[in-house]
């Protein structure tokens, strides 16, 4: 009667003859897909190379003569903005001096709410149709969302609530 067990040497040689290679069974299983995988890989590589070449050619600039002119123009714009800020500051100072004079009373009609641009179209429609869908405090779709008018910092708000 023959020995029912295969020797270790034969089993090791048939499973992985070398540490870094695939087993013969895995090689046979992958054989039908080699050509298709090679074609797909080649197409992906060609596409990536095409995108890279297009992006490089799109931003290529051979002539740099206009850079000095752009720098001068930016400096002029910066000077103009500084002059405008200085003029605004002077106007604010003169307005503060004039503020001591009595101001005329501003009369506002009682039934007219202050004019304010509306925000969005969906929230007012949903408030009329499905009032329970909106956050009751802020009348927004996202419950507990902070106001977009005062963004604040990342650490502000209800970060560590328990």
From TrEMBL:
Q: How does it assemble?
A: Component of 250-400 kDa complexes called cytochrome oxidase assembly intermediates or COA complexes.
- Bilayer-spanning residue ranges: 35-54
**Major subcellular location class:** mitochondrion
Annotated family: Belongs to the COA3 family.
As for membrane topology, the entry says: Single-pass membrane protein
General function of this protein: Required for assembly of cytochrome c oxidase (complex IV).
Q: Name one GO cellular component term.
A: mitochondrial inner membrane
Q: Which domain of life is it from?
A: Eukaryota
Name of the protein in question:
Cytochrome c oxidase assembly factor 3
Query: Which keywords does this Swiss-Prot/TrEMBL entry list?
Result: Membrane, Mitochondrion, Mitochondrion inner membrane, Transmembrane, Transmembrane helix
The subcellular localization recorded is: Mitochondrion membrane
Question: Which GO terms of type biological process are on file?
Answer: mitochondrial respiratory chain complex IV assembly
> Could you confirm whether the keyword Transmembrane helix appears in this record?
yes
- What Pfam families does the record tag this protein with? Coa3_cc
Concerning InterPro entries, the annotation shows: Coa3 (IPR041752), Coa3_CC (IPR018628)
Q: Does the keyword Aminoacyl-tRNA synthetase apply?
A: no
Q: Where is the Cytochrome c oxidase assembly factor 3 mitochondrial coiled-coil domain?
A: 25-71
């Amino acid at each position: 009667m023959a020995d029912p067990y295969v020797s270790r040497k034969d089993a090791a040689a048939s499973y992985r003859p070398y540490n870094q290679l695939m087993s013969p069974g895995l090689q046979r299983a992958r054989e039908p897909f080699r050509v298709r995988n090679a074609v797909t890989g080649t197409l992906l590589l060609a596409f990536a190379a095409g995108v890279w070449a297009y992006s490089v050619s799109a931003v290529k600039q051979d002539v740099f003569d206009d850079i000095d002119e752009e720098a001068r123009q930016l400096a002029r714009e910066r000077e103009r903005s500084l002059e405008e800020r200085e003029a605004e500051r002077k106007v604010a100072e003169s307005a503060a001096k004039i503020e001591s004079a009595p101001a005329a009373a501003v009369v506002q009609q009682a039934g007219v709410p202050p004019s304010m641009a509306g925000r969005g179209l969906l929230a007012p429609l949903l408030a009329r149709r499905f009032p329970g869908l909106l956050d009751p405090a802020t009348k927004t779709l996202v419950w507990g969302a902070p106001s977009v008018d005062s963004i604040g910092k990342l650490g502000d708000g209800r970060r560590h609530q328990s």
